[in-house]
Amino acid sequence: MTEFAQSPSVLPMDDCIRVYFCTRPPPDSQGQYRSFLAYVDLDKDDLFRVINVSPKPALSLGRTGAFDEYGTNPISVIRDAEEVRVYYAGWTRCESVPFNAAIGVAISHDGGNSFSRLGEGPVLSYSPDEPFLLGSPRVRKFGGRWHLWYAAGKRWLKPQARPEPVYKIRMASSEDGIEWQKYGRDLIVDRLNADECQASADVGYRDGRYHMFFCFRQGLGYKTRQNGYRIGYASSLDLHTWSREDHLAGIDVSEEGWDSEMIGYPHVFTHNGATYMLYQGNELGRFGFGLSILE
Amino acid sequence: MKWRRLGKIFDPTEHELANNCKEFAQSPQALILGDRVRVYFSTRERDPSGKYLSHVAFVDFSRDFGRTLGISHATVIELGGLGCFDEHGIFPMNVVKHGGRLLAYTTGWSRRVSVSADASIGLAISEDGGDTFRKHGTGPVLTSSLHEPFLVGDAFVNVYNGTYHMWYIFGTKWMANGRDTRPERVYKIGHATSDDGVNWRKEGRHLIRDRLGGDECQALPTVIRIGDRYHMVFCYRWVYDFRTNKANAYKLGYAYSDDLNNWTRDDSQLGWTVEEHGWDAEMQCYPHLCEVDRRIYLLYNGNDFGRRGFGLAVMSE
What is the reported pTM? Predict the structure, then answer.
């Protein structure tokens, strides 16, 4: 693994802050990537000091023909009593479109060093109004109930040879994190246009309100500063109705440097009384992720 | 059981089918209408790349299957859009009339890179008596799950005591017989139930015992109730070398149940004998049971997966 540290997800440990992320070996002869789960352990007193890096992928890829044969990305990690679970988008490759995805789950019984999948198939899959591309999971527990925010594909755009997907943020909830009930509607109103893509909805609860940070971009031409990922914000009192107010996100691309063109896949956590946001920068995280602190 | 074979009753190459389909009339499935029995089947066109697309068509027979009354000349159901589960074919399609609704359960196919294809089960509804069907959403109603990871298809639905029952198949693994061969699939028969025909609960087990071992492939379950007993016919084959080798090719299997829960497999009770020669001597596959005017019929495909049509047998005792 030499490039990419995408979709950071924090798991506080006794002696460090562990950040899981998705990384990639060099592409194959057709330029196609695979993506693996990895982690880095950060010093609790200095989050810019790396203590340890996972020596090998923390989760293997799926077998031939499985939904996660070519990648596990993005990811979301959560502690549940003695277990640690990772929810991930599994990648497969298709003929008419480049890829498809569904959401899988794997469990660690060694404190989060290695994970094994609960089954060979996905834990959240397609339905009549969510036909493909279930990805970008972010899992949280509120009041003992599991909540999963994810992106669901709406349609493929094909103005040129390579089709590009449009996807929107949706939600499901569960008693056990295994059997999920989908809410069945898009949660966040579009700001750009109907082809806006939304992903990585990271939700926290504070002062009587649920706060969601997510990322969004234009459907096409998104590898430019103009159309690339930005971080959006919405809030809700009941988890059902969300008010989008992106200006409250309080973060935008930098004038220059590693996060000057795009910022995406936000993940918020608290540590030593401070609230931090991890996010990935230019080229969808090719050069890593960064940190910001709530002022 | 005993069967009287009535021979091949439909050859697609003798008709002008819609969507440039020339060959294949696979997985015949009956809908009984007033003066006729409509048999839906899947036929194929070649796309510009030379690969197949499966389309649904139908042929109408008189109620005794003695005469052909007509065929579909237009598209019965559209294939799915770009990236959808049913983009590259619908095969098969099972049609159910219940409670004033006419429902179709489709097996939609789309192509993959490391394996040939994946499949899920969709729902479509007809509001013109079965001439055309409109889809309930662009995604499937039954698809992959934790322990049924891919290749969910071959739905057959009946309503018993107010509950919708679906028998279907799901993939368990893809296997390669050597380094340079394409992976081949293994699939098994499962069961799901529903109160409305739309939202389904999988039972989550292999319903029918293997006869050839864990690598046996089981397909196209069809169920009929006679008296107090439920009878299932399906087809099964070996995982490899099944296309041209009669020993490994599809054959008909049989199981029965008195409670829709416990199924006993006993292929010998089907009372089916394989011929030495003829249109169905090499392979017997994609069975469909139906009852018309108190006779029980078995529609099925023969050699070469139904490239040259389907045939019929009638239960004689």
Answer: 0.96
